[in-house]
Amino acid sequence: MGIDGFYLMVLWRSPLIIWKLQISLVSVIEVQDMNDLQRFIEWAQNEIAVVRDFHKRILFSDEAHFWLNGYVNKQNCRIWSEANPQVYVETPLHPEKLTVWCALWASGIIGPYFFKNDEGHNVTVNGDRYTAMITNFFIPELNNHDVQELWFQQDGATCLTARATIDLLKDTFGDRLISRFGPVNWPPRSCDLTPLDYFLWGYVKSLVYADKPQTLDHLEDNIHRVIADIRPQMLEKVIENWTS
User: Tens digit of pLDDT for each residue in 3-27?
Assistant: First the structure.
């Protein structure tokens, strides 16, 4: 083989130091995305320089799916064994889920709101359902708060940014709207900027499956309970992290 016997012996006796590495799938980030993100960061920093608690006046919003059977991330689940343990996790072919929306800021949470049709069945988000939620749930909830001091943020998903929805939000917030097609543009593919993505959804999901809910109603009750138990002091710390 052309390899000295001494080196073969060293290779044979030396333990192999290897790691099992996983490929991570991430969204493609375009140059324009980075430019948009930089502009937004500079804008936010300028606002905070003028109004020190500006970041505490932003209502960040987002929606998330909660699957009834929870989830097992097979990429993070590894069993080391000399023999195949033949471990399986059964999952339904068409698992049931809830689609939940919340708005979060330093002083509280509006929601959760569960997207359902007229028959009360759980559904996903589309433009009409989102506009109906803003009209029938979100705006009435704002009556309990000083809207003149609050900004509203949403991401650029197509179902959130229909003309009718943007016009409705502009009527409510004026220039204090952070959104695609809004007075202040929300940078695309930057969901990790919102406290709901870097805190709320992960925190809630870590607790609502503890008692292994067997029905969507049970899961919905758990989501209501966990969110209601989040204290303002925790939210203040979460929002402070937004500026760090």
Answer: 555 444 444 445 555 554 555 445 5
Strand order, beta sheet including 58-67: 108-114, 97-105, 58-67, 151-153, 177-178
Cβ 173 vs Cβ 148: under 8 Å? no
Closest CA relative to residue 102, chosen from 86, 93, 116, 115: 115
Q: Which amino acid is at 175?
A: D
Whether residue 218 has pLDDT greater than 60:
yes
List the one residue out of 242, 239, 235 whose CA is nearest residue 108.
235
Angle at 83 between CA 79 and CA 86, to 5 degrees: 65
Q: Which helix (H) or strand (E) holds 9?
A: helix 5-13
Higher-confidence residue of 76 and 5: namely 5
pTM over 0.90? The answer is no
Query: Which residue, 180, 195, 188, is CA-closest to 62?
Result: 195
Question: In sequence order, which residues have a C-beta less than 8 Å from that of residue 36 and are 6 or more positions away?
Answer: 185, 187, 188
Cα–Cα distance measured from residue 53 to residue 66, given in angstroms and rounded to the nearest whole number: 32
**Is there a cis peptide before residue 112, judged by omega within 30 degrees of 0?**
yes
Residue with tokens 């705006």: 139
